[in-house]
Hints:
Order of helices and strands: HHEHEEEEEEEHEEEEH
Strand content: 15-25%
Largest sheet: 8 strands, mixed
Oligomer: single chain
Number of strands: 12
Helix content: 25-40%
Amino acid sequence: MENWREWRRQQRARLIACRKQIPKAERENWSEAITSLLIQGFPVLQQRSVGFYSPHQGEYDPATVMVYLFERGATLALPEVIGLHQPLRFRKWWPDAPMREDAYGIATPHDTEQVNIDAVMIPMIGFDNQGYRLGYGSGFFDRTLAAIHPRPLTIGIAFELLHLPTTYPHEHDIAMDYIVTEKTIYYLNNGVLQPISSGVCASMNTLK
C-alpha cells in the first residue's frame, strides 16, 4: 500500500470508536470470556515475570487476570514510558502498589523496582491474520520487544470485532505469538493465525 501511514491513522480512529461503542453488557460478557481463556490457556504464566498494561480508551481490563496470577506467585509488572524513542521499562506491580499517571494519563507503578519480563500481554487497537497488531503508532511495544533478549512470550489482546484481514505490516512490526479475543485463542503457526482451544493452548504453555 502506497499511503499505509494514512490508512493506519484512519483505521485507528475507526476501531477505537468501535471499541468505545461496545454496549456495557456485551463488553462485560466479552471481557469475562477473555479472562477465562487467559487463565485456562496459559498456566505457565503462574511461574513467570509477566508484563501487563493499564487499560486505555476502551481496552480489555486485565485486572482480574493480574490478581489471579499474583495470588499464584507470578511476578507482575506494568510499563513505564522513559523516552519518546526508547523501549518501555517495566516496573513491579502488586494489588496495593503505589501508582501515578504518566504523561499520557496512563497508570504506572510509582518508583517500584524494575522487572525483566519473560512474557507480556499487549493491547491492540486491531490485529490481522498474520498476527500483527495495530497500535497507537508510537512503536513503544515493537521497540521494547526488539530490545529484550531472549524475546518474551507475546500475547496480544483485543475484541474480535477489531480483526482485520491485514494491517500492512512493515519491517519494524513484530507479530504476536498468541492473540486472545472473546471468541478464541489464536496461535501464530508458520506466519498465519490459527484458532486453538484453551486446552490445546494450555498443553503448549503448561506448568513445569
